[in-house]
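The passage that follows is intended for readers who have already worked through the single-chain material. We present the inputs for a multi-component assembly, then the predicted structure in tokenized form, and finally a short commentary. You are encouraged to pause after the input and sketch how you expect the pieces to fit together before reading on.
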Amino acid sequence: MADWPAKKNAAFNVHFPIYDADGDLVTGAASLDSEVSIDHGTFADCSNEATEIATSSGVYYLALTADEMNGDIITTITKTSTSGAKTAVNVMYTVTRQLVDLAFPVTSGRGWT
Amino acid sequence: MIGLEAGIEGVNMGMTKNLVIGKVYAIGHKRKGDFRAQLIDIVPGDAQDPQLLTFKIDTRPGSGQERLARSKGASITVTNVRPSLVVRIDEMPGNDEWLLSQRVAEERRKRADAEKEAQQVEVGQKRFSKIMAMIAE
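Having made your guess, compare it with the prediction:
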């Protein structure tokens, strides 16, 4: 189950648009190249590559692995060779416990008691 | 130039390449295409790629590699490349003097770490010598 903020050290699909200079969504962005920075470290190739949500939405998602989410601040950047398309950036501040982890009924180790 | 010999397994060619930190290579990459870059480090990776190759790339306008710059007009771009995404890596004949002359934060940090380690070793050796001298007395 997806929840926000994203959980630290757990696989996560981040969704984002790719815009052109006018602010229009860009569909079919070519030669996508996504990189991730963990806790302001040097950007590294992502394990997976971004995919556009069907059909011709201009909105893309990137499957980040648990290893790639294992930091307090996760930054992704997705470049494309499509002319006029702007580079997409996502910044995520992760949490070690999400709301779902704190939900009642009390489960051992999760609730107040 | 650091010039350390560094073998790397998993370069996607069914063989082990002996890469040298400090050298310039021509790289074929599944997503980034072909580019040339200086290998400046090999760092720990993750489950998919236990090691990542840190490359310093010339992305000056007119270099033909501008597409690899994250920010528009950036003259140097440093990136950790997954060996599993590399399809080809060849030594470049001759060196890219401009690229080699550039120093980036990753290199400065590595040099500082190496100097710190050397200092610690030196301090350790001095202490060891002192203790040995005391024992001899």
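Commentary: Chain B touches chain A through 19 residues (CB under 8 Å). The mean pLDDT of chain B is 87. How closely did your sketch match?
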